[in-house]
UniProtKB/TrEMBL annotation:
Organism: Chamaesiphon minutus (strain ATCC 27169 / PCC 6605)
Any matching Pfam family: CRR42-like
Official protein name in the record: DUF3148 domain-containing protein
Length: 73
């Protein structure tokens, strides 16, 4: 079951993946310790395969929707 997010929506991490993939033109794998559960970011793009490009303070990463939850303000 995939969630739908809107571009510009604020989301938070609810679980960490085994690794992070950068949202660069040539993605690189990074350790998951660069982010913490509860870290908030902004959806900047939709990618194939239920991946979302999310901009965090440190960098932008590609995350599957199962690791994200919309922040309700």
């Amino acid at each position: 079951m995939s969630q739908e997010f809107n571009i510009g929506a604020t989301v938070k991490i609810i679980a960490l993946p085994p690794y992070l993939k950068t949202a660069d033109p040539m993605p690189m794998l990074r350790p998951p310790t660069l982010l913490e559960i509860g870290a908030e970011g902004i959806i900047i793009d939709r990618k194939p395969g239920n991946y979302w490009a999310v901009k965090f303070d440190r960098s932008s990463f590609l995350l599957e929707d199962r690791y994200l939850e919309v922040v309700v303000s």
